[in-house]
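Translate sequence into structure tokens.
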Amino acid sequence: MPSDVVATLVRSPEPSIRWKVRVGVLGEDPGSRAMRALRSEIRGSPRVRALLSRRDKLGKPGTARQVYYKWQGLHWVLAALADLGYPESDESLLPIRDRVAGFWTGPAYFREFAAATEAAAYRQRGVPLIRDRYRRCASQQGNTLLALMRLGIADEHADILAERLLHWQWPDGGWNCDRDPSAHVSSFNETWLPLRGLAAYARGRRRPGLKDAIERAAEVLLARRLFKRVRDGRVMTPDFVALHYPHYWHYDLLAGLTAMAETGKIRDPRCADALDLVEAKRLPDGGWPAEKRYYTVSRGATMRSNTDSVAWGGTGRSRMNEWVTVEALAVLRAAGRLRG
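Result follows.
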């Protein structure tokens, strides 16, 4: 166990980092009195207050900007709270749940139409079916399902989200929103969040086809060793082997390993290359860097695309990022690669 960096994380001023390392790395009982107290601290933290500062701007029903606007819409607020260790079953989140989950289960996602060309797929609202594959950005429904389950606020929306994901799943086991008719292989970006959402939903639930759907989705990633092309073993894209936080909807090998840990697949031999690469990226101080990021920090009340309400530790190849570090330690622990 890299005890020095763990000790640093346990003393972090950020309560969500302390939660993540104590539960995800040190294995403390999340239901203990100490962990419940820590989650209460998370709820009142400056980070959470900043994220929730827009909760009074729910917007009118059908207004996509307030739901999905990158990265300040309510969709991203809900996802961030779920990742931060926010307390479960908080009724104050129900208006946000209803706004976000209601948006992603609206009539447009039950309206299907066949299309022969990419242009035809954009001519009407709904989910196009092209060459027997639904072209849908399932990361949106998958991320919402994951947040509802982790925050303990699942209702009938969760059942609808799971049903839609199962309905749209591609023959190879994943999902893809590419409307080019030639696209015939699932997208990692559109598969890792539905996989996590369905895995969280499956805990304590039985639904026909659910277990098989999770197995098939995991196989999409495992067949490619989480970042390699099947045909030649080369890296699929440079972003897949760079470390980021937050991931939002983007995939990288650490996101893939987290999905493998949550589905019980982290000790599959095909995860070894990704785990080796994560270990190789460890810094001399025992931590890991955020090598790239997908956000800028908002400097005012005006919403701008790809800005976040809070900062996430910055980037730099020689500088430890606490969020990436605790995520890396958690997957290494789940894989049995940490000792102590």
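Note: The longest strand covers residues 127-130.
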